[in-house]
Every structure is written in structure tokens, then in C-alpha cells.
Write a structure and sequence with these properties.
The protein is α/β, with parallel strands linked by helices and 210 residues long. Helix content is 38%, strand content 22%.
Length: 210
């Protein structure tokens, strides 16, 4: 991925990241943050620039993306690793995040268990998911993407919540505090469909470790 591609991705996801942080409503100052599926590290850089976090760590199975994330770290207290799951030794995080990672996982139960172990007691995992079986846009999107990627079946929100509760988490769900959706890139299949997706269908789970 080129620098231009990375900038485009930041612009594409930036308004969602802002909505997530508004919805969460936490002051992350002094906390240890985990990003599951960090890609090129844009969300953690945003968090590090906005809050004086103690540390941020992110992992992603795409080694090239992780290398870019590390290269763009600068003097921020961030660390990245190429991994399919929480790397060994990563533990005692205060807060974890993921954005559109759950729908890609063939084994959500293992992911839930790994995040549970990675958080301290009282720690929270915020997981954003719009790609679920109650989203009208999902059937078309899933059909097109499945032609090139090995995707699991479409999950339900109830199934995701139950899996995390079985792993020991308390589970809550909320809509994202989305304000303005960029028109560029959202004209097909129509602005109304995309507004419903971002404002109603794209939700954030709050999974709390007791």
C-alpha cells in the first residue's frame, strides 16, 4: 500500500474513528491501549495524538501493513506486530479496540478468549461491526468480496454477543455517534442506504471483563 493509499484509508475511516471515540466517551490518558487488526496503525496514531496514552500496541496478520505502521510511528509510544491473534506476552491492557475485524474471523470464540486474557480486570473491549446479517447492504457486499477472500458465514449481532458472554465478558451494544458521512465514495447504491448503514446498522459492542 502506497502513502497515497494510506492517506485515502485514513480519510475513509477517520469519521468512523471519531464517531467511535465520541461514543466511547473515555479519557484514554495514561492508559494502555490494544488495537486488534490495526492495519497501518492509523487509529492508534490518532489515539496517541489525541490523548497522552501510556502505550499503544496493535497487531494485524498483514506483515506489510504492520511494517508501514511501525515506520509511521515516529516518537509515539506505539508498538506493532504481525500476528493473527494477541501476541504472546501482551497483557494487562486497559482498553482494546477493533474496527470491522469480527466479520473476518472464522473463530470468534478464540478471538474473544484472547482479548479476555489480554485485558486487565475491569478492562473494556470496544468492537465495531457493520457487516452482520441485519445489514441490508451486507448480502451484496459479502457476495462480491467472497469471490476473492475466504470469508466466514455472515454473523448475527446476537451470535457475536453470546460468544463474548460465553468467554466471560459482560456485553452491551450501541449505535455509533456518527454525525456527517462523506458523500464521496457513498453515492452507490445511494446516500440513504449509506446513512442507514453508518447511523443504524454499524454498531459498537462494549465487552467488559469483570
Amino acid at each position: 500500500m502506497t502513502a497515497d493509499d494510506d492517506r485515502e484509508m485514513q480519510e475513509e475511516h477517520g469519521f468512523v474513528w471519531d464517531a467511535l471515540l465520541r461514543t466511547v466517551g473515555l479519557d484514554l490518558t495514561g492508559l494502555r491501549i490494544l488495537d486488534a487488526g490495526c492495519n497501518q496503525g492509523g487509529f492508534l496514531r490518532l489515539v496517541a495524538d489525541r490523548f497522552a496514552i501510556a502505550e499503544g500496541r496493535g497487531y494485524d496478520p498483514a506483515a506489510a501493513a504492520v511494517a508501514e505502521a511501525q515506520a509511521r510511528t515516529g516518537d509515539r509510544p506505539l508498538q506493532f506486530a504481525a500476528s493473527d491473534t494477541v501476541p504472546d506476552g501482551w497483557a494487562d491492557f486497559d482498553v482494546a479496540f477493533s474496527h470491522e475485524v469480527l466479520y473476518l474471523l472464522h473463530d470468534i470464540a478464540s478471538h474473544a478468549a484472547a482479548l479476555f486474557d489480554a485485558l486487565r480486570a475491569g478492562g473494556v473491549y470496544f468492537a465495531v461491526i457493520g457487516m452482520h446479517d441485519a445489514t441490508p447492504l451486507i448480502a451484496r457486499w459479502h457476495r462480491e468480496l467472497s469471490q476473492h477472500h475466504d470469508l466466514p458465514p455472515i454473523y448475527s449481532l446476537e451470535g457475536v454477543a453470546t460468544t463474548f458472554m460465553d468467554a466471560g465478558f459482560d456485553a452491551e451494544v450501541s449505535r455509533l455517534d456518527v454525525r456527517f458521512v462523506p458523500v464521496r465514495g457513498h453515492l452507490d447504491p445511494g446516500l440513504s442506504a449509506w446513512l442507514r448503514y453508518y447511523c443504524d446498522d454499524k454498531v459498537v459492542f462494549r465487552f467488559t471483563k469483570p
